[in-house]
Amino acid sequence: MEEIDSITLPTKKGIAVGTGNYLVTVRFGTPLKKYALIFDTGSHFTWTQCEPCAGFCHDQVEPIFNPSKSKSYSNISCRAQTCNQVSDEGYLAKEKLTITRSDVFPGYLFGCGQRDRFLTGNRVAGLIGLGRGNFSFVSQTAKKYNKIFSHCLPSDDSSVGYLSFGKSRLPKSIQFTPMSKSFQKTPFYGLDIIGINVAGKRVPIKSSVFTTAGAIIDSGTVITRLPPTAYAQLKSSFQKWMTSYPRAPALSILDTCYDFSNLSVITTPAVGIVFNGGVEVYIDFSGIFYMRNISQACLAFAANKDARDVAIFGNVQQKTYEVVYDDVQGRVGFAADGCS
């Protein structure tokens, strides 16, 4: 069996720079310039803001990347559809991408952004796409890491988790669910949700509710989105266990909120998402509630607007699990207690 190279990087939630997503630090160019980028399993493209910002660049923490000062940068001129799509936002380019001293990728394809893509208040330089597709980091580094990577997002937003590539030793407790065939030719990692449990009991949701549009797993989406019918049933089952707690006002898309002020003990029902193969992911307490503050703790799930919208298993619900993506074997694994 061929030895797979592996590397593990620290990752932390980007609250300080205005995002609920997780950051990993990489280096572009010659000489090296360091950037903290969102890692996104729902995107297949890596990009960062670039000078001269011909459209509009938002404020970011690091100096904006200046390709004219890098000896290893080169633009790509082409008429392919993908290149034309990139040109609407910036330039398709090649550059040296450095992960560590021994993990260097010359000629890495990425987007040199000329127009703002993030919400107001987000001061991140860009993102690294870990989805599927020829432009993704996973595909461009396949010879080194064999399209295997994993991450663990900590329960405490101020703590440090990790992002690993090429991991060859799997946790003994890991359970794999096959990737959904419905998303094979897309940039997304599709998963088949077959049910939701609350307090160990299956929530009454017809299987067709989950199969209408399917579901994906996405580290770049914060809150899990469910089909409207599935969310309504989850909400109803959850509320039955929470009748002793006073309600609090809704928070944006989160409509099931509670006031935990002056309480020393909070007891909530276990919530589990069940995937194809009977793999059940029990959500950590930090993933059951989105805590704006102690007086406004909201069930961290939301309903899609339409039953035809794809469901998304977001990063809040992935906390404390080591999530392993194995695109060669077409599977995603979950191992509890991957980090705290």
TrEMBL record:
InterPro entries: Aspartic_peptidase_A1, PEPTIDASE_A1, Peptidase_aspartic_dom_sf, TAXi_C, TAXi_N. One of its GO terms (biological process) is proteolysis. SUPFAM superfamilies: Acid proteases. Residues 22-335 form the Peptidase A1 domain. The active site is at D40, D218. One of its GO terms (molecular function) is aspartic-type endopeptidase activity. It comes from the Eukaryota. Belongs to the peptidase A1 family. PANTHER family: ASPARTYL PROTEASE FAMILY PROTEIN, PUTATIVE-RELATED, ASPARTYL PROTEASES. This is Peptidase A1.
